[in-house]
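Structure first, sequence second, as always.
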């Protein structure tokens, strides 16, 4: 059972990873949301979080998405409001999985469970990122499953040529990922809480 973070402090350790994601949240809520789509190079923020299972990577990515979507975000505390439509819907996991979210005309996110990923989802995702004129985040959990199914390289060109989309991938291993794809991503690493101080 996955624990849902309510604040950044709920996420123990993994400070580098947290700092990176917090920086993007701040950027978006400090006016990035109001920037013309395309003026913010969202694709240059794309990242892959690698770490063993239970090292907190999915929890961190989910909380990041929640921060990005919140309509009444507290910039000072860097915390989602907990009461807006998106904060409430985000708590309903079933509603959230594989669901497209749009905040006003600002940021939309698309969440993909890599374990249940099929070709039509890839086509739908790509259609969406090319058609929608907004800042977007595509979150793919368990990216190693897409690599194993030879889907991963299909993302290379969309990552390169679509400046309005940030890709956020989580994986247990970067093995088998092509260097060209890896070069487009910031590499973040999570460690299980027990190893944080070692
Ligand atoms: Zn909210």
């Amino acid at each position: 059972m996955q624990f849902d973070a309510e604040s950044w402090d709920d996420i123990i350790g993994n400070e580098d990873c947290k700092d990176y994601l917090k920086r993007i949240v701040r950027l978006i809520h400090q006016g990035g949301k109001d920037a013309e789509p395309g003026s913010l190079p969202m694709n240059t923020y794309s990242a892959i979080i690698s770490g063993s299972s239970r090292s907190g990577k999915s929890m961190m990515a989910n909380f990041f998405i929640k921060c990005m979507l919140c309509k009444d975000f507290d910039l000072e505390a860097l915390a989602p409001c907990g009461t807006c439509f998106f904060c409430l819907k985000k708590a309903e996991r079933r509603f959230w999985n594989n669901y497209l979210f749009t905040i006003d005309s600002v940021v939309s996110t698309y969440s993909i469970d890599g374990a249940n990923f099929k070709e039509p989802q890839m086509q739908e995702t790509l259609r969406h990122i090319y058609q929608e004129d907004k800042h977007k985040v595509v979150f793919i959990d368990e990216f190693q499953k897409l690599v194993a199914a030879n889907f991963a390289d299909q993302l290379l060109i969309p990552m390169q040529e679509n400046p309005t989309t940030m890709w956020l991938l989580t994986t247990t291993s970067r093995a088998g990922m092509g260097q060209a794809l890896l070069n487009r991503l910031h590499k973040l690493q999570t460690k299980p809480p027990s190893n944080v101080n070692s």
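Margin note: Strands lie at 47-50, 100-102, 107-113, 135-141, 165-171, 186-189.
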